[in-house]
Amino acid sequence: MEKLDEKIIIDGLENSIFACNFKLHETATSTNVILKDMAKNGAPEGTIVIAEEQTAGKGRLGRQWLSKKYENLMFSVLLRPRGVLKPESAFVLTMIMALGVRKGILKITGLDPSIKWPNDIYFHEKKLAGILTEFSVKEKRLEYVVVGIGLNVNQEPLESDAVKGLLKPATSIKKEAGKTISRNLLIVEILKGLERYYLSVLSGNMDDVYKEWNDCSMLMGREVEIAMPKGNARGRAVRIDRTGALILENENGEEIRILAGDASVIMK
Ligand code: BTN
After folding, report:
1. Which of 69, 146, 149 is the pocket-test mutation for ligand 1 (most atoms within 8 Å of CB)?
2. 58 alpha carbon – ligand 1 mean position (Å)
3. Nearest CA to 175 among 27, 63, 72, 22?
4. pTM higher than 0.85 for the full model?
5. CA angle, corner 89, sides to 215 and 249, nearest 5?
6. What are the DSSP calls for 54-83, one per residue?
């Protein structure tokens, strides 16, 4: 079993912004929680908090994120896109993390995962990873953004839980690639990819990011159902807009804008 190795990762990152302040924890509460505290205390852009194990890993919508020690990747990245991004555009940072993860997996394994709105990475209808983005706004500007990712790398998925309906079906890179993956090499490729997309966002070029994200989306063009607290919506997914809202076309040809929810593809 290969442990995460700070030196291998930092050497691999060369002069990336993500090599500047890299904190590896054997055990952490939640890398997002730790990094938000560091951000409040002035940690620089590019700071990474990564853990072999979390005792209070958080998912979206108040869920837990569970992951076996030494098997997967759980880390959070601090971004400070001062002045460049308005708070209503912060979703683009979730998008570039998803694109970076997809690129890293593609490079290391040849597998080509899809992105599932709003914050998941899937492979053949099974979840590989989830992203949790949290940010702070000060004087109408983004003060900091923490983008956290949990990625199933070498873990055997909990199929029985999926079958019982407790979880959506999950998978791991090892299961799909048929071999154990070096997490040290994978995170380097993910962060290199993320940095390229981030520089593109900072330079104001978001069109390519939106296009690539839409091209890799597993929902686009398909009939989907979105579970929301106030009831479900159904329609064909046509695009996401600049705020990250999903646009559905209903059976009357009208467009519905969905800000958040859990999406399922309707199998015919
Ligand atoms: C989801 O699918 O609901 C999002 C899961 C995000 C989990 C990651 S693991 C690293 C970071 N720290 C956390 O507590 N959560 C995110």
Report:
1. 149
2. 5
3. 72
4. yes
5. 50
6. BSS-B-GGG-B----TTTSEEEEEEE--TT
Cα 244 from Cα 68, distance rounded (Å) = 31
Whether 59 lines ligand 1, by a CB cut-off of 6 Å, is yes
What is the Å distance from ligand 1's center to 14 Cα? 26
Bridge partners, 212 (sequence order): none
Residues 164-174 have pLDDT tens digits of: 554 578 999 99
β-pairing, 22-25 vs 48-51, is: parallel
pLDDT for position 84: 87
Tokens 């890993």, residue located: 57
Residue 119 CA to ligand 1 center (angstroms) comes to 10
Task: Give the rounded distance of the alpha carbon of 46 from its chain centre.
Answer: 16
Chain centre to alpha carbon of residue 172: 15
* Max CA pair span of the chain: 57
